[in-house]
Structure formats: C-alpha cells, structure tokens
Write a structure and sequence with these properties.
The complex is a heterodimer of chains A (about 425) and B (about 400). With about 425 residues, chain A is α/β, with parallel strands linked by helices. Helices cover about 35% and strands about 20% of the residues of chain A. Chain A has 3 domains: about 15-210, Tubulin/FtsZ, GTPase domain (Rossmann fold, 3-Layer(aba) Sandwich); about 230-325, Tubulin/FtsZ, C-terminal domain (60s Ribosomal Protein L30, Chain: A), CATH 3.30.1330.20; about 380-415, no CATH class. Classes of the chains: A alpha/beta (about 425), B alpha+beta (about 400). The interface of A and B includes residues 264, 296, 407 and 412 of A.
C-alpha cells in the first residue's frame, strides 16, 4: 500500500511499466475504439476485431483483424453467439499473435449480440495464454432488449470472467441515466458511448501513462484477487482551483457507481488521478479527503497518479471499485491456466514475484476464504465487516463467519 | 415452609437480564408476584464476557423484582445459553437385579446414569438428561416403567452438555450477587415450558427462541425432546446487518428493525422510504426494500441453518404443531410467515402462556425464558416431592423429570 507523509513531494514520473493493448470486438467494441481514436491522447495500440469485413475496414484502429472468414463470410455474426465463437476459433492463431507482447489487454465489447458474446471469451483466453492480463470493458444489453439477450450476456460474462483479471460492466440501462430522461435518443446513446470511452481511456491511462505513483500489475492483481470479478467505474474531470473536489464528486455521481452507494460496500477502490505538471500533493490529499466519507469502513484504497501533458490544466479522477463478497469467485478457475496470467518477462523483480501467484488463491472453491487471504492484510477488512462483533470469536458455520452480514455473504445487492 | 413455595427465574441474556419471582399458591397454581429487568452488559452471543458488569445488571434486575414482590430472595433457577451447548441422543440400559422382578426408582436412576456413559468433550459437563421413552425387556413406548415387571430396563435420552467453564461463569456472577443457584436450565428448555402445553409437545413442535445474541431451539416429537441447541446468531445480528447495509448508527438500526423492518417473504419488494429524523445524525431516507432485504436475508439464513441442522425435512411430518417462535426477535414483523416459508409447516409467534400475574408479561415473547424458568422450577419441585426419599438424598434435582 502507498502511504504518503505530509512532507513528501510527489516524485518525478517514471515510465509506465505496462504495454497496454486495447482491442475492440464486434460492433459495440469498434464503436468504442472509434470514439477513443478521435480523442486527443488516445492510446495508440488499438486493435479492431470483427467478423464483418466492412466494419473492420472502416475502423480507424491501426491494427485490424477479420475473424471467421470461412464461418461468417465477411458478414456480421447475426446475433448468433455460436457463430461468433466459431469465428474466433477459426482465427485463433491471429488473435494469439496479436496479443503476444502485451502485458495488459483491454478488451472492449458489447455482450448480448453474436460477435461480442461468442468471440470475447475465446479472445480473452488467447490473450491470457499469450501472457497478458485481460481486463474486460463490456456493455450489457438494455433490459428492453429482452431476457434472451440478457441471459446470453450473463452467460458470456461468466465465461469471460474465467480469463479476465476483471470485467468492468456497463449496463446500458444505467449508461443512459447519464442523460436526462427526456433527452433525444441519439444524445443519450452518444453520452453513453462517451462514458465508455472515458472509462477505456482512464483504464488505459492508469496503466499506460508515465506515472508518478504507478498502478502496478501487482496492485491490480491485489485489487481483484478473491473478489467478485465484476468491477464498477466512475469518472470525473474538472479544472480550476477546486478541481480535485469537483472531479471526485463528479466521479462519485456516476450512475455506474450507483451514485457512490456502491463504494460503501466493503471492497477495494482504486483512485486514479491524471493531470499535467500542476497536479499537487495537496490535490491528491483533497481528493482522498472527499472520497473517504463515501467509503465503508472496510474499504481498501489504492492510489495511482499519472501525468498527461495533454491534460491542459484539467484533472481527471477515475474510481475503479471492486466490491468484495467475501466469497470465492463462483466461476471455476482451471488451475493450469493461471500461471499464464503472469507477465512472461520478469518485469519488476522483488515484491511482485509472489503477488501474481495470488489468484491461485481463487482455487479454494470450497471455503469462504482461501488460506492465502486469511493470513494477509484482509483480516482487518473482515473484522470491519463484522461490525459490533469485531472483538468476539467468529461464529463459524460451514466455513462461513456468520457475524459478517448475511447480505454481504450472499451478495444481495441493495439499492 | 415459605421457601418451597417461592420460585425465582433468572435469565441472563445478551440483551437483558430478567428476573421473575413466582409463588405456588396453596391450590398448587403458580402466580407471578414480581418481575425485574435490566439492560444486559458484559454478555455477548449469550456468553458472559465480563462478570463484574453483568453482576451489577443482575443485581438491579433482582432488586426490582424483589421490590415489586415485596420479598427477599436467596435462591434462583438460572438459564444458560451459548453456542457451547450441544445435544445428543443416547440409549442406556440396566439389568434388573435377580433378587426382584419389579422395576424400582433405583433402576430408573441407573438407566439414566448408563445413558450418560457417552463421550463428551473433556471440559464439558452434562446439563440435562431428558428421557424420551423407556423399553422394558425390549418393549417400546413405555412412558412410566415404575412398578412394571421386567428383566431389563432401557431408555432413550436426550442429553445436553456444555463447556464447564462457561456454565460456571453464569453461576459465578449469580453468586457474586449473593444468590444461590439451585438449578441450571438450558434457555430453550425453559422457553419451551413457557410457550408449550402438553398437547403441543405430543403433536410435535419446534420452538425457536430468537434472542439478542443467540437462537435457541428445541424440537419435540411424540411428547419428548429430540433435538436442542444454540446458534450464536440472533437479533443483534439483524441490527448489525442493518447498520452496515444501510449505514445507520446502531441505535437507529435497532429502531428500524423493531418499528419498520418486515421480513415476510415478498416484503423485499416493498416500496417507499422511511425517514430518519435525528439532529445528531445526517440521516435521510432509508429504502424499505433495502431494509427488508437485509433483515430478511439474515433471518432466513438463521432458519435455513436450523432447518439443515435439524434435518427438518425428515422431521416435518412429525411436527404437527408446527413452528413456535419466541424470544425478543419473534416480535419482528413477518417472521412467522418467513419461518413457515422456510420450514414448510405452519408457524406462529408465541408469548408465554398466561399464568396469574401481571398481564404485560404474557403479551411479549421477550419474557418466555424467564417465565419458563419458574414453571420449570415448580415442575421440578413437584416431581421431587412425588418421588422417593432415595433420590432426594442424592439431590438429583432437575435430572429426573419425565419428559423434561
């Protein structure tokens, strides 16, 4: 964990450790890439992947892969996830080759359709096998699109979760809440796409920009280890003298964070600030100060700061929240897959060496907590979740600590 | 003999200490003449963690009861609870000596002793051995073997045992308050005495007493105890969950639980909000659906755990009397509907059966254990007076009562 003494100065930025690749898959994924490419300071390593030859050709992404030439014959997958899957399988080698060398792959796609739902898990698996950490940024269909689509998306999400370090879900229903209820459809969808590209960019920046306080892969692993692989995202940007407070508040208002309510659930938060040279320690402290009342007692905060000369006086605040259920990830993790998740080259030697091994803790499907978790700093976390029972012997039944609120252990979402 | 007609029940609970003084009138009926209550301190999940603090509380409760009854008391019957209490069923058997055919009191005592010849963890002591039924020469269903002719007496017992040091903690703080403990009773056993009558027991019933720190349960089949135990989860957990889930201080969480929460199945879909108005706390609105979700999840879990622990699905057909809920948390809105939903049999919340005395006592499930203790004490004494001098000399009070 990073601790900051009051007199400590923000150090000079160090080069980003991670080679980040952003892959857009399917219609929604390509749309996200397109928007991303139009913006200043966009990450350069963009890859467009689709079954639809025309869509791939039209993408501004510098790297393009048309998958399933035989299966899909250059057309879309037509909402058929099995066709999407077959297309990806047909082009395994291309996909794997594209991912090799990347430390982090950010996979952007929409679930519920054919290409995204079918190909995303295959692509994520290949990226993981190529040695990259995969973070999914996915949209979930509108409720109005029907339960079939929703089920397909959920199923795909489960498969995807097996290969991803984390999957950040954007519910379309919530995305449009960014706009007023009576806003024109085009505007609402545009705003939703804007949020997505912000998220993609923020995650890329977290990992890809020269950083004063870099977010290491070890921290990401730590963030998501043993947690529900679904993450939530909020973003705010502001300028002026009070920009730290304003940006944090905007990020907290994000509908994707359920207006900050989610943050009070025990879990981990990554607070990431992006700004130019004018970013000060006092602003970092102000941001933390404004965030802390919204956090639950058990929340662990990771901090990252990156510099972006293109920021031009603006301060960006990204919040990545990973709510903890205290339960093992429901998805079975195949053991042999995991070592591949570790970056192939020894990036930074010392403390990280053992950290990437941590997801192996997820293997403990039976118990509430894997052994590795129990011995670590998570103890105070569990203690805080026990509230008034924190000083007492836990009431253990079937491997669960019954003093921890039932709704947390059963992952019941509150409004 | 004034002493013999006065019974005092003392319940040291996680939430409160309750004292009930009752006297057996000349016509044999029990009348409650004084009650005292003090908020409990130094008790967590039913177990005493601070003897000094709890001694003060029980002194207060007893003093209040003494004042109302206008009597001074020296002896009490105390209840114990806590997750350390465990139960098992075991069969004991003794041959009838060759010099006689008729089964005597001594044999009945010995068969009980033989049933206690079972391994319990070292550091544990027996709290209850409750007979289920006797077998004479292998013949089933004998409820009273005394005087029967046979060569062999056997019996099934329900045995409750617990950690000696923890039971001693209860006794020690009562002694600290200058009172003598004449009997120690498992809370669930006491509560069952308060809320059940014989016909309930005969038709089969599960009593669930949900207090602040523990859930005590006891299951009767064919008139006798088959299961009993304690789960160290209670109403405090509901409060704690609400406090964490809705981010309200404990005081408000408790108020929300008592006044607003509804745990009935379906109440999770409740609409609307509850407004908290408190100048000392930036409260605001609480979504009813969230409140009900948090509370329902906890109580449902308690019931589900009990159901599994009791293997209830296999018992259900013998539980004609359904579920009887008591203890302070039984006041929770919708709890009977939830219990019925989980267990699949009818459920009701129950107060102590009315005796003579202050009616307020019989209008709340909070008093079941304390009231049950005096009923138990009276029954124990009656049993004692009925049986022979032989047992009295051995002072096996409370261990020889048929049925309980």
């Amino acid at each position: 964990m990073i601790t900051i003494g009051p007199n400590e100065r923000l150090a000079a930025p160090v080069a980003a450790v991670s080679a980040v690749k952003v892959i857009g898959l399917g219609n929604a994924g390509l749309a996200m890439l397109q928007r991303l490419a139009q913006e200043d300071g966009a990450p350069s390593d963009l890859v467009a992947v689709h079954t639809d030859a025309k869509a791939v050709a039209a993408s501004p992404a510098p790297r393009k892969i048309q998958i399933g030439r035989d299966v899909a014959k250059g057309l879309g997958a037509g909402g058929d996830a099995s066709r999407g899957r077959a297309s990806a399988s047909e082009s395994l080698t291309d996909l794997r080759a594209e991912c090799s060398g990347a430390e982090v792959v950010i996979l952007c796609t929409g679930l519920g359709g054919g290409t995204g739902s079918g190909a995303a898990p295959v692509l994520a698996e290949q990226a993981k096998k190529a040695g990259a950490l995969v973070i999914g940024l996915v949209t979930l269909p509108f409720a109005a699109e029907g339960s079939k689509k929703r089920e397909l998306a959920e199923e795909c999400l489960t498969r995807l979760g097996r290969h991803c370090l984390a999957v950040i879900c954007f519910e379309n229903d919530r995305m449009v809440e960014v706009s007023a209820a009576d806003a024109p459809l085009a505007e609402a969808l545009g705003a939703a796409a804007g949020t997505l590209s912000l998220a993609t960019r923020a995650v890329t920046q977290m990992l890809g920009l020269p950083a004063i306080m870099p977010v290491g892969l070890d921290e990401l692993l730590d963030m998501f280890a043993g947690a529900d692989a679904r993450a939530h995202f909020g973003y705010g940007m502001s300028e002026g003298p009070d920009r730290a407070r304003a940006a944090v508040e905007e990020a907290l208002r994000s509908p994707l964070l359920e207006e900050g309510k989610l943050l009070s659930e025990p879990g981990r938060i990554l607070l990431h600030l992006t700004g130019d040279d004018s970013l000060s320690l006092a602003e970092l402290q102000a941001a933390l100060r404004h965030l802390s009342p919204h956090l639950g007692p058990a929340t662990q905060v990771h901090v990252g700061v990156a510099t972006d000369q293109a920021a031009d006086g603006r301060l960006g605040v990204a919040l990545l929240a990973c709510t903890r259920s205290g339960l093992p990830v429901a998805v079975p993790v195949d053991e042999e897959d995991f070592p591949a998740a570790v970056a192939p080259e020894p990036v930074e030697a010392t403390p990280e060496e053992d950290k990437p091994a941590k997801p192996a803790g997820k293997k403990g499907k039976g118990g509430k907590k894997s052994e590795s978790e129990q011995t670590q700093e998570e103890l105070p976390l569990d203690q805080a979740m026990r509230g008034r029972f924190k000083d007492l012997d836990p009431t253990m039944v079937d491997g669960q600590d019954l003093d921890i609120p039932t709704f947390i252990r059963m992952r019941i979402r509150l409004k | 003999m004034a002493r013999s007609t006065l019974h005092v029940g003392l319940e040291i609970g996680t939430t409160k200490v309750a004292a009930v003084i009752a006297e057996t009138r000349s016509d044999g009926l029990l009348r409650i003449i004084g009650t005292g209550e003090a908020p409990s301190r130094g008790v967590r999940k039913g177990e005493i963690v601070d003897i000094g603090l709890i001694t003060l509380c029980l002194t207060d409760a007893v003093a209040e009861a003494e004042e109302k009854a206008d009597r001074e008391i020296a002896e009490v019957v105390a209840s114990v609870t806590g997750a350390h209490l465990e139960s098992l069923n075991n069969r004991g058997g003794v041959p009838i000596p060759d010099d006689r055919d008729e089964i005597e009191e001594e044999d009945i005592h010995e068969v009980e002793q033989s049933a206690m010849d079972v391994s319990i963890p070292s550091g544990n002591v027996f709290l209850h051995t409750m007979v289920q039924h006797y077998y004479v020469d292998g013949q089933e269903g004998v409820s009273s073997p005394l005087g029967m002719i046979g060569r062999k007496l056997e019996a099934e017992f329900h045995i409750v045992h617990g950690t000696k040091s923890r039971i001693q903690n209860s006794l020690r703080c009562i002694r600290e308050a200058n009172l003598k403990v004449t009997n120690v009773v498992m809370s669930a056993v006491a509560s069952a005495h308060a809320v059940l009558d014989q016909s309930d027991r005969d038709s089969g019933v599960l009593v669930i007493d949900i207090g602040g720190g523990t859930t005590d349960y006891i299951l009767f089949r064919d008139g006798s105890v088959r299961h009993s135990g304690v789960l160290a989860v209670g109403g405090d957990h509901v409060t704690n969950d609400i406090s964490i889930g809705l981010r309200v201080p404990t005081k408000w969480a408790d108020k929300l639980k008592v006044e607003e929460a509804d745990v009935a199945p379906g109440a999770v879909a409740a609409r609307g909000t509850v407004q908290i108005e408190d100048p000392t706390y930036a409260g605001g609105e609480i979504e009813r659906s969230s409140l009900n979700k948090v509370a329902e999840a906890r109580v449902r879990e308690i019931f589900t755990l009990l159901k599994r622990r009791l293997n209830f699905d296999r018992q259900a057909q013998f539980i004609g009397g359904g579920i009887v809920l008591t203890g302070g948390t039984a006041d929770l809105k919708g709890i009977a509907a939830l219990a019925s939903d989980v267990f699949g049999v009818p459920a009701r919340a129950a107060n102590p059966r009315p005796l003579m005395g202050p009616t307020a006592l019989f209008e709340s499930p909070r008093w079941s254990t304390a009231v049950g203790l005096v009923i138990y004490a009276q029954a124990a004494q009656e049993a004692l007076e009925e049986i022979s001098v032989f047992d009295k000399l051995r002072s096996k009070i409370g261990k020889i009562i048929p049925g309980l």
